[in-house]
Structures are given as structure tokens and as C-alpha cells.
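Before relying on records like the one below, remember that each one covers exactly one chain. Contacts with other chains, cofactors or solvent are not represented anywhere in the record.
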Amino acid sequence: MELAGWVTVGAAAVVGGFTVVGHLVDQVSALSPKVITVIRSVRAVRDEVKASRE
């Protein structure tokens, strides 16, 4: 597999990981302020990755 293919696979894995973590954390109703901060950070990174791919 060429380098571009590996980069695509890596980027997809990172975005997929953030999506799964975001979904799982969304299922928890009572979150501490620290976890909420982490969720916002993960979502910001996910949005930045999505924007860079468009």
C-alpha cells in the first residue's frame, strides 16, 4: 500500500475513534465538568479534521 493509502487509513481511524468516543460519552447523562471539557475538545478536533478534508 502506498503512503497516501496509509495516511488515509490513519486519518479515517482517528476520525472514527473520535466519533465512537463522542457517541459513547453522549449516552451518559450526568457528566463532571472535566469530562464535559474533554468532550468539547474532542468535538473541536473532530470538526477541525472534517473541515480540513472538505
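The mean pLDDT is 82.
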